[in-house]
Amino acid sequence: MRPIFLGICAAFFFAFTFILNQAMDLSGGSWIWSASLRYIFMVPFLVCIVGIKGNLKELFHELRVRPVSWLLWSFVGFGLFYAPLCFAAAYSPGWLIAGTWQITIISGALLTPLFFETVETINGPVKIRGKIPYKGLVMSLIILLGIILMQLEHSKHVSLENVLLGVIPVLIASLAYPLGNRKMMDICMGRLDAYQRVLGMTLASLPLWILLSVYGVFTVGLPSFGQTIQSGLVAICSGVIATVLFFKATDMVRGNMQKLASVEATQSMEVLFTLIGELLFLSIPNPSLLSWFGMFVVIVGMVMHSYVAQITRKKQFLGDHRNVGI
Questions:
Q1: What ranges do the domains of the chain cover?
Q2: Can you say whether the dihedral through the CA atoms of 177, 179, 181, 182 is positive or negative?
Q3: What is the pLDDT along the chain (326 residues), one digit of tens a residue?
Q4: Which residues, at least 6 apart from 269, have a Cβ–Cβ distance to it below 8 Å?
Q5: CB within 8 A of 148, min separation 6: which ones?
Q6: CB 297, CB 143: distance < 8 Å
Q7: Which residue in 19, 76, 3, 70 sits closest to 281, CA to CA?
Q8: Which of 279, 312, 228 minimizes the C-alpha distance to 34?
Q9: Residue 234: which of 265, 292, 274 has the closest Cα?
Q10: Which residue in 115, 108, 138 sits closest to 7, CA to CA?
Q11: Which of 4, 14, 57, 282 is least surrounded by CB atoms within 10 angstroms?
């Protein structure tokens, strides 16, 4: 239960991303600065945390040993994740982006065959290639139905072009985030803790954010003071607290694809947290009945997804113990 609890806490702090990105867009801020400033501001906070724990040396060793892998998968896991999310904020409200973002649960399930999981046998732990959790995937399709219902309602009020510009970037982000995260878990192999891994990926993604910042200076000018402050809040709440909580939760279930899928499913709570935040602080129009129903379907799908994964884990546990008895 602890990984699930940490995942829900991460969802709460991740919701600040969607709320504050929407606030920055409404005030005229560019997505370029919303994306780049978050990761630039994350660096000093994470360096202090990892430095106080005395773990900087091990991290820098890992970065030196595998620089290409760190640069590539950090670009995928952080760059192709966050830049598209910030871009989408200009075309959809935060709660809708948060809802569409839940398709990452399906993306994570479809990525399973690309990785190996550890299975306990009579002869000890054995690594086998992961299989798509089809039962969990069926439950994930319920989440997809909820997303479609929300997008259908939204499409009544905006053009098809705006709908696509709000959806396609989120789809890219939903695939990039679990792919980059899982690849870095495989590369690190438990040698680094969650704080070290987040700092390492942040440092490795800095070339992208610096280039994006330079582009922003010449195209949209410097960010306003308000956007700078809000980006700092996103860096602390979402970039540091939420990311570390989520990475810690995924580290706790590393090697078990069913448990990993359950932790990733907790991110569905972002929809509810984001909507509450936007209603309280941004005074957005109350979503329609169809949108509310879509959100309800998303959350029900998340709960059912976790339940199916739990049943599967119990069957695996009993099966393993029968094999031991043999």
A1: 2-325
A2: positive
A3: 788 888 889 989 989 988 998 899 888 889 999 999 999 999 999 999 899 989 999 999 999 999 999 999 999 999 999 999 999 988 888 878 887 887 877 777 777 777 666 555 566 565 666 676 666 677 777 877 887 887 777 667 777 787 888 889 999 998 998 899 888 888 888 788 888 998 999 999 999 999 999 999 999 999 999 999 999 999 899 878 887 888 788 778 766 666 776 777 777 778 888 888 888 888 777 778 888 888 888 778 777 766 666 665 555 544 443 333 33
A4: 8, 11, 12, 299, 302
A5: 294
A6: yes
A7: 19
A8: 228
A9: 274
A10: 108
A11: 57
Rounded distance between C-alpha atoms, residue 91 and residue 246, angstroms = 27
pTM: 0.78
Do 278 and 95 meet the contact criterion of CB atoms below 8 Å apart? yes
274 touches 95 (CB < 8 A): yes
Query: At residue 73, what is the residue type?
Result: W
**Residue 110 CB: number of other CB atoms within 10 A?**
14
122 and 324 Cβ atoms separated by less than 8 Å: yes
Q: What is the DSSP string of 116-139?
A: EEEEEETTEEEEEE----HHHHHH
DSSP letters, 272-288, are HHHHHHHHHHT-PPPPP
**How far apart are the C-alpha atoms of 322 and 61, rounded to whole Å?**
43
Residue type for 72, please? Answer: L
Radius of gyration of the chain, Cα coordinates, nearest whole angstrom: 20
| Amino acid present at 315 | K
Quick one: tokens of 137? 């995937």
Question: Residue type at 237?
Answer: C
Q: How far apart are CA 154 and CA 24, in angstroms?
A: 21
